[in-house]
Design brief:
Rossmann fold; mainly alpha; three-stranded antiparallel β-sheet; single chain; two-stranded antiparallel sheet; Arc Repressor Mutant, subunit A
C-alpha cells in the first residue's frame, strides 16, 4: 500500500507518516494501527481517488500472477537506422502498437539483441503486464439473438427493476418450468444493474450447468466476467479472484 503526498488532509498525512518507512503494509495492520479512526471504506475511497495503491496477495508462494513481457515504441519519431532488422522491428511495432514479446519473436528470428539495442537507445519500452489464465470451462453452444420478452416476462422484469431502482434489498422468486424463460429475465436484470455501475453475482446450483449458462452470459456480456467453481485449477481460480478484486469483472 502506497499513499501519494499531494494535497493530503490531516488523517491522510498521519497514514502516510505511518507507512513511509515500510515498503508495504497489510491492510489489517493499518486498520489496527488507527483503531476506528480509519475504516476500510475510507481507505478504498482514497484508492478510487488515486491516493492509495492497494494490491491483493495470497499468503505463501504457490500461486502468483502470470506475467508477460510486452514491447512498444517509446513515442518518439522513428529514426533511419543502418540495421535493416532494427528498422523492420520499429516499423512493425509502429503498425501494431503494444505487442507481447513472444509475438515479436514469432515474427522476427532471434530479435533479442536488436530489441535490447533499441531499448538502450531509447526507441523501445519493455515492460511486464499481468495476464489472466483462461477458465477451464468452455462451451460449444452457439449464441442466439436476444429474444423478445413475453408479456409475463415483461411483467416480472418490471417488478425486479423496481427493486433495483429502489436501492434496497428486494428478494424475488421466479417460478417456471425448464425452458420457460427465467434465464432471460436474469440477464435483463443484470444488464440494468451493470448499466448503473453496480456488480452482479450469479450462483449456479450445479457445475454441470455452468457451460450452458456461460455461453449465454458470454454472448450477452462478452468476456467481462469472472467464473469460480471447484473445477478450476489453482492458477485459474487465483486469476478469477484477482479479476474481481481489481474490478475488471463486475459480473461474477
Amino acid at each position: 500500500m502506497v499513499l501519494g503526498r499531494g494535497d493530503c488532509d490531516p488523517m491522510q498525512t498521519r497514514v502516510l507518516h505511518e507507512m513511509e518507512h515500510r515498503p508495504s503494509m497489510p491492510l489489517k495492520d493499518l486498520l489496527r494501527a488507527f483503531g476506528g479512526e480509519v475504516t476500510r471504506d475510507r481507505l478504498f475511497s482514497w484508492k478510487k481517488q488515486g491516493l492509495l495503491h492497494v494490491e491483493a496477495e495470497l499468503d505463501g508462494k504457490e500461486v502468483r500472477p502470470k506475467l508477460k513481457k510486452v514491447v512498444q515504441l517509446s513515442g518518439g519519431s522513428i529514426p533511419v537506422l543502418p540495421s535493416r532488422k532494427k528498422a523492420e522491428i520499429l516499423k512493425w511495432l509502429e503498425e501494431r502498437g503494444k505487442v507481447s514479446y513472444s509475438e515479436l519473436t514469432k515474427q522476427f528470428k532471434s530479435p533479442s539483441q536488436a530489441v535490447q539495442s533499441l531499448e538502450a537507445a531509447g526507441y523501445l519500452l519493455i515492460s511486464t503486464e499481468e495476464v489472466f489464465r483462461n477458465a477451464s470451462v468452455q462451451s460449444d453452444l452457439k449464441p442466439y439473438p436476444k429474444p423478445e420478452l413475453t408479456r409475463d416476462q415483461q411483467a416480472m422484469l418490471g417488478e425486479i427493476l423496481k427493486g433495483v431502482h429502489s436501492k434496497r434489498y428486494s428478494p424475488f422468486l421466479i417460478y417456471g418450468v425448464t425452458g420457460s424463460g427465467k434465464t432471460e429475465i436474469y440477464l435483463r436484470a443484470i444488464e440494468e444493474v451493470l448499466a448503473r455501475g453496480k456488480e452482479a453475482l450469479v450462483l449456479v446450483p450445479e457445475i454441470s450447468l455452468t457451460p450452458q449458462l456461460l455461453s449465454r452470459f458470454k454472448d450477452r456480456f462478452g468476456e467481462n466476467l469472472a467464473l469460480l467453481h471447484s473445477g478450476l485449477g489453482r492458477g485459474e481460480r487465483y486469476d478469477q479472484w484477482r479479476k474481481i478484486w481489481k474490478g475488471k469483472s463486475p459480473l461474477h
